[in-house]
Amino acid sequence: MNAEQKSDAVRVEKLPGHIAVVTIDRPEARNAVNGAVAAGLEAAVDATEADDDTWVVVLTGAGPDAFCAGADLKEVSAGRGSALSTERGGFAGFVYRERSKPWIAAVNGKALAGGTELTLACDLVVAAEHAAFGLPEVLRGLIAAAGGLYRLPRAIPPNIALELILTAGQLDAQRAQQLGWVNRVVPAAALRDAALALAAQITRNAPTAVRESLRVARMAHELDEAALRTLTRAAFQCVAASEDFREGPRAFIEKRAPQWTGR
User: pTM for the whole thing?
Assistant: First the structure.
């Protein structure tokens, strides 16, 4: 993957330390999702998945005001709504896309409607102090059909989620952290650094072990106990066959930092 790739509406930066930053770059439209964003995010997933040197990805929005305002309703009203989704990724080319690597949402402002659904599709969340979340679709006679209606009640207590869904209310970053959805809340000026620091904590670990652990943990609400045990055994077998499985204990015995290869 190149050091920086840019589509019409999405930027991908490759940083040192096995981290990539993906930015929705439509600040003039509050980073609302149009066809270019959907295509750009799908391409960003393709690029980061294909790059063995990328171990963690941070997703954010351009500008200080909005992470993502959801679907661009101007595009929808113009009859171009189908372009806002892709076959592999669903809405924004992202919410239903299978991804093997951890994604951290760095929420730099309002994340509403599809913006909240993008956040819910990530694995971890770092939010600026002025960030807020909500599923206001019912205000427009719509529903949060990109995963929000079932992912939000999994992320926070169901009764709070139902209130947000049915009233079109908003949840500020501090309350979202108290409810266990948001991992970190930081001043806006510190958001990027905080997200990258969390990513760096992950990249200190063996990437194969991280990906296999993530694969099982993501299914915790989807499968029963027996199926999760089977999935865990398969994950362990995959990790045990890796070079890093031998490197970790060896580095511990030799009292040095491990040199992970991801193989």
Answer: 0.95
